Amino acid sequence: MDKEYTFIMLADDDEDDRMFFIDAFNEIKISTKVKTCQDGEELMEYLNNNDSVLPEILFLDINMPKKNGLECLSEIKANQRFRNIAIAIYSTSSSDEHVEETFVKGANVYIKKPNDFNILKKVLSEVVTVNWQYQTSGMNMDNFLLRL
Amino acid sequence: MKKLSVNRSGFLLIVLFVVSSALMFFMMGLAYKQLEKLRENTNWMYHSQNISLNLEKLYANLKEIETERRDYILDKHFSDAASIIKKKVKHNDALLQLLKLSMDDHPGQQQNLAILQNLILRKYDLVESTFGDSLKVNATTVEEKKTSLLAGKYLMKAINQKVEEMQNIETRLLVQRRSAFLYSEKQTPVYFYVISLFTLGILGFAFFRIFRDFGLQVSANRKLKIAIETSELAEKVGNYGVWTFYAKSKEYVFSNNLLTILNIQMDQVSRDAMVSLMPEEDAKKYLTMVDKWRNGERTEPITLRYRDSDGNYKYLRTITERISSESGEAFLLGLTMDVTSETLSREELSRAYSDLKFYNESSAEAEKLGKFGFLQWIPQDKKFWFSDNFYRIFGMEPQHDPHDLRDFYSAIMNENTAESRSIIKKMIAGKPVEPFSQRIRRIDNGAIRYISITPKRMIEDGKVSYLTITKDITEETLDKQSLEDQNRILNANNQELQAFNYVASHDLQEPLRKIETFISRLIDEDFDNLSDNGKEYLERTKSSARRMRNLIDDLLQFSRSTRGENVFERCNLNQQIEETKDELQTQIEQKQATIIHGNLPVIQGIPFQVKQLFINLIGNSLKYSKADVPPVITISSIITDAKDEPLLAEKNRGKFHKIIFEDNGIGFDNNYSEKIFQLFSRLHGKNEYEGTGIGLSICKKIVENHKGYIYAEGQPEMGAKFILFFPVNIQ
Question: Hey, are the CB atoms on B506 and A118 less than 8 Å from each other?
């Protein structure tokens, strides 16, 4: 990356999770800028705003009120404007239906929310360091679900 | 056969023969007579000719004598005149003799002859007188010469006249006789001709009759031959033999086929021989019959058993009749038929009939018990047949008078009228009809019953017929309905529970995760700031949280393994093991475990469940390993047949994949081999080994989802063995 920082966004309705997320990135030695939204609607509003700076990576929770992660995913992938945004599903659930659906809808990776802060840091730094642009080919279900 | 009129013909022929013989005789007589006449005639002719000739000769001689005399008188004679005359006289004597003889029968001619003779004698006298004076030849004067000549002339004239007269008479006689002869001669050919024709006619007729009789005889013979051959053939075809018994000569004559039927030679036939070939009571009857036959009496038709020399059992039926022939001789005509096959068929038939009766009765009972009935309908003939129980199903009494489908219409409920109508129409059109079910209202008590109707369309003699089986399925239907209701309720409950389970597990995870994360943050940041108690409390809190996490994870697993449709896909177990090993990588390395697996099969399974199963099993083996022994886990697989597996025995049939997970861990008391699969059941305290008691329940659930079976075997300190059976073919 030849920018000063990586712009990262998170859409998650859980206040605690948002807090963990920001804290984790604060402790990761990668230069990042983090923005959070609390539901799908807020996210799409932001993205659709022409003045907004688009994130490089979007962490998307699935279970959100108003508009859930799946709907957002569909909308984002349908819009050419957002094609450069790498999407990481960031969810409590690791149900197969969710994994499959998000994979099919074009998410780049699926992350199950870890229950340990340190693991969270590890996961997040891994996701951020991957150059997702070069990862689009060769994606298959085996790689989709992030495993450490 | 027409009676041949040979006898009459014979008589006629004899008559004809006699007649024609008579005619022949007659003709022969005629011929003979005619020949006689001819002979006579010829004789007469010859006779007359002879007389004429002799007379002529006589005259000629006399003339010559006269000439000689004359010549003598006239001196113109030969020297031998006397001898010539002598010769002539001698000849004349002979002739006269002859003439005399010939004219024996005719007195007239005899007289004439006598006269002639006299004349001739006078002539001789004259001649003598002339020649008497031979020496005095010249003495005679011319006058004397003239007188002698004249006398001679007159004499010759008289002789000539006489001769002529005699000749005329002869000629007349001849003519007379000839004309008579000619007359008869003319008649005779005509007689001959007519009689010949007649005789020929008779002969011809006779020949004709003979020919015809001959022809009739030949054709009668031929007919007879045909009749005989037909009779023999009839015997063979009809499997009977004809025999005759001549009362007079006490002789039996058997036809060839009879001997064939009895399988006996003619010379072997005797009363004793026959008796020996029959069972005792039949032999007795036979003897009675034979006695009657000896007297020329006929017997009533009777069937007797007979066992021929080859041991074949036969039934023979004998019929006898008295016959009087034309010639008056009476004989007994017997017909013995081989009725073995008919008798045996009859016995078979009656057996079959009683079988059928029994079958019918059992069938009637069966349909009562089974609560089904039959209907047979031939639409083209408008013919119906209903079994007894068919009526009962509809609430009617079994009836045996012909009935119509319409009698049952009142049982059809409104909701089904249209369907019933269309089905009946189809059947009338002879089309195939699918089985169907309906509700009916019983005709006697109006109760609602469920019936199933299975029509079977058949074609007999080119006509469509329907054999319909109607079954009262009310009990089954109601049971099914109640079962279905119960099932619905159960399913609904189940689903609620599962939903609850899932949601609970899932939703519980959230706060738990927070707790864990905050605990980890607390430990990371402020652990050192805590008091000793505080540190301990924190540690215990952490471990409780972890336990809760495990419980929730397992519950979530469990709920996942029970909910949803089971969609089977191709599942390569080797691949699943590899993925499991990846998943448990950390523990495997930690324990320095070795996992060995043989070539595992590919099965039809639910991949994520199979993986969970393997994770749980291998995870357990890793967890319950001996403290100082690196775990070695062996996984093997064979194909086996249910009947060879004591564990499977009554449960199932067919082939199974038998997969064995074996480890060298701490094992367990085999008495708990079933208990360990129960939910929340544990063999160790939570302080000894971690665990929720859910893992093996999940394994069992998963194996059952795959229509398989799981068993455990173990010995304390000797490791544990888990045996999985997956059916080779999941239906």
Answer: no
ipTM: 0.73
Q: Is A115 on the interface with B (CB under 8 A)?
A: yes
Q: Is A3 helix (H, G, I), strand (E, B) or coil?
A: coil
A139 assigned to some structural domain: no
Contact in structure between B554 and B695 (CB atoms under 8 Å):
yes
- CB B720 within 8 Å of CB B624: yes
A-B interface: how many C-beta pairs under 8 angstroms? Answer: 31
pLDDT at position B144 is 75
- Strand-strand pairing, A86-91 and A57-60: parallel
Note whether A117 contacts B514, CB cutoff 8 Å.
no
Spell out which residues of chain A touch residue B582, defining contact as CB-CB under 8 Å: 147
Q: What is the pLDDT of residue B264?
A: 83
Beta carbons of B524 and A118 less than 8 Å apart: yes
Q: What's the confidence (pLDDT) of residue B285? A: 87
Q: Which of A16, A92, A118 minimises the CB distance to B520?
A: A118
Q: Kindly state whether residue A62 falls inside one of the protein's structural domains.
A: yes
CATH number of the domain that residue A45 is part of: 3.40.50.2300
Q: Which domain holds residue A106?
A: 6-131
> Cβ distance A9 to A44 under 8 Å?
no
Distance, CA of B90 to chain centre: 118
DSSP structure class, residue B412: B
Mean pLDDT of B444-459: 89
Q: How many domains does chain A have?
A: 1
Tell me, yes or no, whether A102 lies in a domain. Answer: yes
Alpha-carbon distance of B595 to A132, in angstroms, equals 36
Residue A144: inside a domain, yes or no? no
Interface of B with A (CB under 8 A): 506, 509-510, 512-514, 516-518, 520-521, 524, 549, 560, 582, 608
- Among candidates B155, B157, B166, B156, which has minimal Cα distance to B54? B166
* 3-state SS class at B315: strand
- Distance, C-alpha B265 to centroid of its chain: 31
Cβ atoms of B638 and B689 closer than 8 Å? no
Tally of CB atoms within 10 A around B352? 12
Q: In this model, does residue B1 exceed pLDDT 50?
A: no
Of A20, A93, A95, the CB nearest to B517: A20
